[in-house]
Write a structure and sequence with these properties.
alpha+beta, 2 domains, 9 strands, disordered N terminus
Length: 238
């Protein structure tokens, strides 16, 4: 009579199969949880946080009033509408209101703010020269309400290089977005001077409208009226 096949080889085969399955499973887990995320990134993750701009006023002397406006989006329409709504809250003639401009993430970035209002500034790339923070203001007089903005040059930025870059505004075709109402037709930019400060300006045909800018120390001062330009300097300690 023939003998039955021994059980030992079968047991050995099952043990080998079990070990193989464990090894294959381990390799699969290693591939899914370690190797693939290394090359392709995790399947799920937390979005990169939005970096907010820390705001600190550049005014060393207080304005007559202050306000904060929150814009729904950083578009020219939303910014202008928000500023117009704030402008209805009147001040006495020749007074300045400091205006903080923020969105859902906090203080808005100066370069993005300016280029939204005046796309011609995008060619100048002020983000490489100016800090993200800025101080906004409105100047009130009998001719209207005139916005203005003060930015600050980054450390080690060549002020003369920035002045040269800003000369491109001379060929800008539309800077009306910096105003709350139409300034009329602009004249060509000219060199000017106030006290010991060299300025550039372009007068609009509407009474009181005059786009002025100057780099004074490490500040870039922009005002939509010459009277507003003169009035804001003492608030900066200039």
């Amino acid at each position: 009579m023939s003998e039955l096949s021994p059980k030992k080889p079968i047991t050995k085969f099952l043990n080998t199969l079990l070990i193989g399955l464990v090894v294959v499973g381990g390799i699969g887990s290693l591939t899914y949880f370690v190797i693939l995320p290394t090359f392709f990134g995790a399947k799920t993750g937390t979005p990169a946080p939005v970096v907010s701009v820390k705001h600190s006023s550049f005014f060393v002397n207080p304005a007559a009033a202050s306000a904060e406006i929150k814009v729904p989006t950083l578009s020219a329409l939303d910014i202008t509408t928000s500023l117009q709504n704030e402008a209805f809250k009147q001040l006495a003639d020749q007074q300045i209101k400091e205006v903080v401009v923020s969105d859902k993430n906090g203080q808005v970035d100066f370069n993005k703010f300016l280029t939204a209002l005046a796309p011609a500034l995008s060619a100048i790339n002020l983000s490489s020269a100016l800090e993200s923070d800025f101080t906004g203001f409105m100047y009130y007089d009998s001719n209207g309400v005139w916005p203005g903005y003060v930015g600050k040059l980054k450390a080690n930025v060549d002020a003369n290089a920035v002045k040269q870059a800003l000369m491109q505004l001379s060929s800008a075709t539309n800077l009306d977005g910096l105003y709350l109402a139409s300034p009329g037709i602009f004249q060509p930019f000219k060199d000017g001077q106030y006290k010991n400060y060299a300025t550039r300006y372009s007068a609009g045909s509407k009474t009181g409208a005059s786009l002025n800018y100057a780099i004074i120390g490490d500040y870039l001062v922009i005002s939509t009226s010459f009277s507003g330009f003169k009035a804001v300097l003492p608030l900066l300690g200039l």
